[in-house]
Amino acid sequence: MIPTSIFNLSLLTALILTSNQLRGSIPSDNGLNLPNLKRIRLSYNKFTGSIPVSMSNASKLQAIDLQSNNLSGPISVDFGRLQYLQILRLSNNNLGFGDQGHLSFLDPLTNCSSLKILDLGTNNFQGSLPRSIANLSNELTIISLEDNQISGSIPSEISNYVNLISLSLKGNKFTGIIPSEIVKLGKLQRVLLSNNRLSGNIPASIGNLSFLDEIHLEDNELQGTIPSGFGNCPMLVLLDLSQNHLSGTIPNKFFNISPFSVKLNLSRNHLVGSLPADIGALKTIVELDVSENEFSGFIPAELGNCITLTSLYMQGNLIHGYIPQSLKYLKGMQHVDFSRNSLSEKLPNFLETLKTLKYLNLSWNNLEGEVPMTGVFANANAFSVVGNKRLCGGIPELQLPRCTQNGPNGTKNPYVAWVELVILIGSIQDLIIITCVFQSWLRRKRRESLSYSASNVMISPKKVSYELLRQATKGFSRINLVSKSDFGLVYKGKIGLQYIGIPEGKKAAVAIKFISEFSITSQSISTGFEGTTGYVPPEYGLGSMVSTKGDVYSYGIFLLEMLTGKKTIDPMFQKGFKLQNFVANALSDGVKEIVDPVNLHELTRDDAAQAEDCLSILFNIGVKCALELPQFRPDISDILSMLETVRIIYKANTGSTKAHANKKFPSCSFDGSKKHEVATTVREQRDASKFNINVDITVYHTVIYGSL
Asked: Which stretch is the leader sequence (predicted)?
């Protein structure tokens, strides 16, 4: 207890007994016996009982700090008599008893014109805020009413407190909207409105609060989209919008919110679209949570730039593709959750090398291959891979099947069979013979995959006259000179070709198979030069062999052409700027900016809105397929899975029939039995574009037509 003798010191100006183990009640006559008292600080003790009414007699009081005790009951002090009062801290007690009307003690505070701090948080105050809350001192810098049971709406008059730095109303029962007038508080740094029942939109002009460093709006009923203005808050360190009803896509440049951002939480909303590449701008981010939304697309490789990231949560979305290798640069990563998505391909090796990784959840995806046994994978309690039916190996606790050398369908992989045979023979001479046979087999298989015949369409080699080539290149003008190589001079030009036997408008993939075997002496010229025009992958220009990764590149270009209505030979694509670059740069602004209107003209308005998500996925597929380096392109089997996902999403969102969905998005429905046909068709389309002479082909529209 406080010794009673202290209250005989009539000249005492400050009584500071903070952070002790003092008990009992505060003496009831302290205000009468200490008329010169200016500061009383009894915080962080164990005082009980009520606040003495006599405290209002200490008319010179400037600071009252009674926080973090066990004080209870209503507040009966007439604070209006303390005209010099600047600080009133009563938080972390049991004041109020939860009765209505116990906030009336705020009314006399309107006489305290010097009041700067009002802290009543974590008590039992209940009821609506009195009107007097709007008429307190303009000097207020901190208002904290958090963790009570206060109800009603947030008064718009709160904008009167132009010097306010911190506003905390979290953990109450406030309803209604966030008043737009809050943006008038130009000095505001902290806004804590979480755990209420607020609804409506987040004020669009919230970005005008340039000093904001912490915003908590989580666990409300907020609707609408995320304001783009958050990108104008250069000091923002923490932003939490989780557990609301926010929808739409992430606005442009949203991830440029601040170079100092530490935590960003957008989880448990209804956000859609893909995560933009500028997510890599969060250079100092420590925790990123976008879980439990409806995000689609791929995991951005740019996340590898967020080198301070320790916690990454993306579970419960529609994200597909593979786990990017760039995440290996996140050396401080501790918690990763990618569960309940549609991730595919093998587990990346770098995951077992992250020494700081304590928790990894990859469950319920489509991952395949062998589960490592070191690093985080050595502790069954530290990771989860359940629900991935194509995984094998790992520690015994997982009870996964042993990894074998069999292919996906259970048959022996022919490449592995050859290797085993070589090991058994062991002879260098036999090894040479087997290698020759193996190469012969590969060439035969390659020729078979290239032998595609379009339905009822016969295309025979056409000879191109020297005169026609001279006209197409404008007399072999320097303007049309593309490059010089070991093959000779390479020119560009246009030749109008005419095909007989193809019905007008027939949807078929047309391939030009041969334009070669001619010479200048016979008024013909060979045009079979290596190059990268049109659908041809860049590696073919360097002499690489034909591969399925090249087919994937060709399909990606063709898909982007079909979606955008643009061609790779468009004048805008030059000096290294390609169709895939155009699409990747424009995707952050939404698919409406780049999609060919023809792809949407038959849809209803509601269906068109739903179709944008499907189109976004299709555009991402095209961009991924058209990556420069072949090792980063997805496999054809993965493309099939992604297209099937698009079809399912589109049908689920629109309720369209299969025929309707296929009519609008032919690439969203795919017959897996035609995989070889697709690969061959795309390859022959690419071979048609392999020549450095630009050829106009009038019938080329369809890439994939599944079960129409």
From this structure: 1-24
